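Hey, weird one. I pasted the Magnesium or manganese-dependent protein phosphatase sequence into the form twice and got a warning about non-standard characters only the second time. First submission, copied straight from the form history:
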Amino acid sequence: MRTEDVLAAIATGLWRWDNASGTVTLDGEAARLLGLPAEPAVLPEVAVRSRFHPVDWNEINGIVNLAVAEGTLAEARLRIMDVDGRVLRTVRSRSKPVANRTADGTADYELIGTIQEIAEPQPGTTAAHTPITGDWRRSREAFLLDAGRALAEARSTAEVLRVAASLSMPGFSPDGLAVFGVAGDRLSVIGHHGHDPGDEGLFSDMPLDTNYPAAEVVRTGRAIYLPTPEDYKRRFPAAWPLARRFERVSWAFLPLIVAGRTMGAWMAAFKHPASFSPDERSVLTTVARMLAQALQRAVVAESERELTTGLQRSMMPQLGPEIPGMRIAARYVPTGGGLQVGGDWYDMIPLPSGRFALVIGDVQGHDVRAAGLMGQLRIAVRAYASEGHRPDAVLSRASRFLAGLCSSPESDPYQDDGGGRDSDSDFLSPRFATCLYVECDPRTGMLEVARAGHPDPAIRMADGTVLMRPTAGGLPLGIDPDTDYPTTRFTLEPGETMMLCTDGLIETGGHDLDTGWARLRAVLESDAHEHEPAHDPQGPAGHLAPPHLERLADLLVQAVHGPSSHHTTGPLADRREDDIAVVLLCRESVDRGAGTALPHPARPLRRTVLTVAQAEPERIAGARQQIRELLHDWADPDQVDSAVLMVSEMVTNVLTHTDGDALLVAEAVGELGTRRLRVEVADGSDELPHKRQPGEMSSSGRGVLLMEMLADAWGVDPRGEGKSIWFELHEQSKTDADQVF
């Protein structure tokens, strides 16, 4: 009996699919099964494809590609359709891809195999029937979607391995997994699941030429399926004794390929037999591809984190040795552009005079160039300060240095006018930087401040009152190389804390300068940091800081990035997030160590000093604000208004009637409810104020009258050069004030 007769008797046909020419050769039985005349034929690919159900065609196309890649059989179930779109029958196809070369020398393949009709179960019988697009296929697709999403969300190698270990494949879940990585010519285990700790030791460092399945997979880039222990023992006799003790019965080793490069291998081991059907191989191959992509992303992300963390640590300074009588805490939080390092920085610089300097700054931008300029500018400022220059000279030199770094590409005669010019234009575009430089004398607490477009420092007094300390300033660094930076001097009293920060701490979360400062002021005035320990008592870079100061630094950052920040979103919700740098300087009280509760009942002196220069009359508004902040908890709001009015009148008179500057000193002392406010305004003129009777339309001459009406006491004290005008107010509640009148 001929072979063709035997095949026809069991409803089996032969076919040959030439992928290069796009033709299909059928015998008579194969043609009949496809709904064609029962005679041998050579047909174009499109004529045969039209006979398959579209869903099944997509299925077999993937299975064939997998079989070609692995050199295995391609097996699938197919529904045959007639010209009206009705299902004629269901067939099973088994074919073997055979490589060949076309006339032009390119590699291609032919599929040679069989088509066999599957007998459908008769109605009323219990014959099993495996659906083509049934629950298994739907569950497989759902599994792959979930696996892809979970692997895409993994951000580290450990997370990728945990996701891979938790995957529950539909119908054949492995209970042992291992991921092998390649380093040079060595193979090692980078993660495993379902094995005891230490089991990976035997496989942790293997040459790639080892007779082990994972090594062969890496060498060839082709998957290896071992359905039984006999298959394993036959193909890899040297490695079988190592694998036998794990008591698995089926294994799949698949290459991890990214961009055509095999970066490792993935082993899935089963305690229950797995036949590794084409569908199961398709699932395993898809998971291996997703796993390879996830591992590649994780490796890149970890490399970037390691790079940026190292860059950040190298750029962020050591806060230096402990300073007697002074304590420092600092925080740096990179949030811009995802770089983990940005244009913000701070520094502490020992000076030749025995003093030290605190510097905080912010380079324009949130990119790599901003980070690079920040590093260069920080080194330049440190060099200028170490040479012994004064604060104004340090900033002037730093401004010229930055302006020289950020020369415009239009002014560079060596720039190419070709295609490279546009790509470099942003890199060479001008940049500026804000900066605040503070020179501190730790013995006296005297601070000398020079400011270049940066937010003013804030002072937290010993009793918890917080003031924004206005300071003179100039343009940001790098804008005008010839800008002058005037110096402001004031004293940090014992028990007071100064906060320096970049605008990221104020404005992050959609806040502007006003709403952001209100948020931070509430944290600074709170005493929560006095009662809770800091998470890191050593502080950044191993610097020893008191627990309360470290805790305050943590609370300031948490107010911006912690859970509470989501409830205080500012009016500018679309504002881009910015990097944050914050430095806290605390001068210890004479009778206590920083962070210890006050042992005596007397409230500390509340004091502020402010100079208003002839050339800066706009700072009179700052003087009024200083008085309001100093008296923020004063019992009678009318007295606060009176104090503000008198201060405004006194400072304005100095600027109007003299040629010098006005020095404002305000002090509040005593217990709450019975405090005394004393305000002095000194100038260099010897001319004393006179009481006048201004007319109804007069715009001046009421200063002395206001003092007599509003102050509890006032006077003029002549000095060696100039004079000091002062007034006092005694705190009283609103009710007491009403009773007086």
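That's the output from the first submission. The warning seems to come from a hidden character in my clipboard, not from the data itself. The mean pLDDT is 79.
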